[in-house]
Amino acid sequence: MKSSLSQPPVAYNEMLDASGNIRPHYQAFAQWLSEQPAESMIERQVEADLNFRRVGITFSVAGDADGNERLIPFDLIPRIIPADDWRILDKGLKQRVRALNMFIHDIYHDHNIVRAGIIPAEQVFLNPQYRPEMQDVDVAENIYSHISGIDIVRAGEGEFYVLEDNLRVPSGVSYMLENRKMSMRLMPEIFSRARIEPVAHYPDLLLDSLRETAPQGADNPTVVVMTPGMYNSAYFEHAFLAQQMGVELVEGQDLFVDQNTVYMRTTRGPKRVDVIYRRIDDDFLDPLAFRADSALGVPGLLSVYRAGRVTLANAIGTGLADDKSTYLFVPDMIRFYLDEEPILSNVPTWQCRKPDELSHVLANMEKLVVKEVHGAGGYGMLVGPTASRQEIDLFRELVRARPDNYIAQPTLALSTVPTYVESGVAPRHVDLRPYVISGKEIQTVPGGLCRVALKEGSLVVNSSQGGGTKDTWILED
């Protein structure tokens, strides 16, 4: 795929072509929108906000001294993607996740990719996310990332690029599902004009895939969702997914280990647990193996896991593969493990740990996006073109002090889609997080979490940084 990122950054407009004409996949919606009085759109937006708050779709921001729950803004105007574009994404996402799972298995077994000199040994074994406790541990179906959230952007002339891989505890799928419910409630008539792929089957698909990866001998496997508790910023999603799958939502204190088996405490006595969809970081899973001060985990859980008597989704140690410095090597993984060329391209990336690339980053920081390799949520990053001189100088010193902790990328002109703002309908920048489920086979749900930068000109889409969400419509053929 030819890249146009070297061209001057002009945002690709997903609704309008270069002549200002409405692209075919937006025409039905554009016609409907033109028929709507401004007052009705305002009423719909108010109703959406009230319903999201009533349902409890809020989040808390790390570091917020007040601890206030915030509503993630929902934009009424969907992002619409034609079937041909989704076919490319679907194929590329499955290819990428297949290679990533093979990479993680290889790293915790034979290290073939390291022996071949494709990935430096220090990139793996000195990585904070590498878990030596997982060495030579066999996991069911060789699946490590059961649920992967792959962040996709459009840039250049409309090409798709992978921005990040999220393989530890990817979040946001509840918003994908609730956004669709809200769209169908507020705009039912448009669903009769456009054939839109459904997403409501995601919980059933997830549950079936989790059961497929249960330990051998578990004929009717018990699945649970494990949460850190109600004060976690994503607690709504944990409870929502458990409810939608019809399984128990548990905390560490609800589980215990006995005779190398994990049990759940119930009113009818202990019940064996076969699959734990855990929304807790590795460090807190087992105080006997990782952080001894963790009150969130289950003592002895790692020993049961190593014995193959419980499945953890996602597996311990998957963080090695979604490190932003490991991201650079994913195209090489695809070539090495699958003997295929990558369908989806990475964004060009400089590794600050390399002296020549560090020099380039330090000299051009005002033009680049600089990120911590373990950063998330829009934190630990600098968007050079919108940063002040003081912010750039400060970040330059941080990078000089810990170059191995940073990577840099060109400032992408993320594609824009129509968005309902105070002044009316205006273009705003977006990204997309499709969700890839790995069971006996790798599957996607048509769509994903579309995040939108609501501030004019902003490229930061994270909800913690003022971004909102949109429903994503994948059109059927």
Automatic annotation (TrEMBL):
Residue intervals of the Circularly permuted ATP-grasp type domain: 78-453
Lineage, top ranks: Bacteria, Pseudomonadati, Pseudomonadota, Betaproteobacteria, Burkholderiales
Name of the featured protein: Putative circularly permuted ATP-grasp superfamily protein
UniProt signal peptide: none
Pfam families xref list: CP_ATPgrasp_2
Domain of life: Bacteria
Organism (species): Paracandidimonas soli
